[in-house]
Amino acid sequence: MKYLIFLLLGFSSIGHALPQLENLPLLGQPIRAVISETNPPPFAMFDSQGQLTDGIGKAIVDTLAKDLRGVAEYQNVPRGRVLEWLRSGQADLACFLNPDWVDDPKAVDWSVPLLTSQQVIVRRRDSASITQLNDLMGKRVGTTRGFFYPEFQTAFLQKQIIRDDAISLTSNLQRLAQGRLDAVLSVDLSLNFTLRHNPQWAGLFSADLLWSEAPQLMCAVSQSSPKRVQLLRQLSRLQAEGRLDQLIAPYR
Description:
Shape: globular
CATH superfamily of the largest domain: Periplasmic binding protein-like II
Number of domains: 2
Largest sheet: 6 strands, mixed
Strand content: 15-25%
CATH topology of the largest domain: D-Maltodextrin-Binding Protein, domain 2
CATH class of the largest domain: Alpha Beta
Oligomer: single chain
Structural class: alpha/beta
């Protein structure tokens, strides 16, 4: 009996001495992050070979990998398949999402907000301001392939507003400049960044703020990822320490 008690106490001591798995460094394990090519600059920037080279997403995931002693591994997955990859465990996390934009938000875990992104409606400067949904009725609006626009979804489905997808904001702005679109949906961060790098459009466009509240952008983390707790905890730490703002600041 004394021997049994000794063994139980011994195992208990060992259990307390061992660190919990979620506190261990990743030691070179990959952090599989989905960053889609349809994410506009400065959220993600790809070279001509389709390789991720820069952007807010890369800055955040590279920092996570460094802090957790893992290796960032980027997966360029179409926007419409991101949730599927997270649910199936093919990816660990995907950023710049919002629970309102996915079919099953409870299928993943959500990080602290990374940033708030004001949605805007871009138009040619010589056109009338857009302040309500009715101002776009019968108009052709440039959108990004795979993106969900909850404020416009019903009007798109009922063909009251014509949704016209492109793969990038730059393509949409080019079509707007050519008069092939009446307006383009974007966010302030992407629009300002794109216009700074395309001086040929200086003074050509105006942007009206969308009438709904600006959404918070977060990372969705796979519930089947063995790194789930570490990723969520480290993202919270980056926010609490002000490091998220420092990572995003160069792209504003």
